[in-house]
Amino acid sequence: MEYALIFILAAVAYYYFIMKKAGNLDFWKKAAQNPGAAMMFFTSNSHWYIDEKPQHSVTGPYLFQSPLHGRTVKLYCDADYEKETQDEYIRSIS
Q1: Within a domain: residue 17?
Q2: 72 in a structural domain
Q3: Which of 35, 45, 74, 91 has the fewest CB atoms below 10 angstroms from its CB?
Q4: For residue 6, is it within any domain?
Q5: Does 13 map to a domain?
Q6: pTM, full prediction
Q7: Are 49 and 76 spatial neighbours (Cβ–Cβ below 8 Å)?
Q8: Which domain range does residue 39 map to?
Q9: Cα-Cα end-to-end distance for the chain
């Protein structure tokens, strides 16, 4: 019984600290399928920041392999617009 409780607590902690922080996994999967288009979206959208963390409330950093930069970049998004912009990207490629 004790091990079951520890396992459940560990699973909840994993979900909360790892999976929840990862953001919208469907969005990141689609972005990884076409990283060039995703980077064009990030650079053209005023709510996403590349390699620079603004002073206001943002989510991230999200590490993303950028074909435009030839390296992994850190992405940040305005916290209030993350879901909205991710949904916008998914609609734009569908």
Answers
A1: no
A2: yes
A3: 91
A4: no
A5: no
A6: 0.75
A7: yes
A8: 24-93
A9: 47
CA nearest 23: which of 91, 94, 75, 71?
75
What CA–CA distance (Å, rounded) separates 64 from 13? 25
Report the half-sphere exposure of 40 (CA within 13 A, side-chain side): 6
pLDDT at 92: 93
Euclidean distance between CA atoms 56 and 4, whole angstroms: 41
Number of domains composing the chain: 1
Q: Retrieve residue 63's tokens.
A: 């590490």
What's the per-residue H, E or C state across the chain?
Answer: CHHHHHHHHHHHHHHHHHHHHHCCHHHHHHHHHCHHHHHHHHHHCCCEEECCCCCCCEEEEEEEEECCCCEEEEEEEEHHHHHHHHHHHHHHHC
> Which single residue is written with the structure tokens 């620079």?
52
For 21-31, what is each residue's pLDDT tens digit? 556 788 999 99
Task: Determine how many CB atoms are found less than 10 A away from the CB of residue 82.
Answer: 20
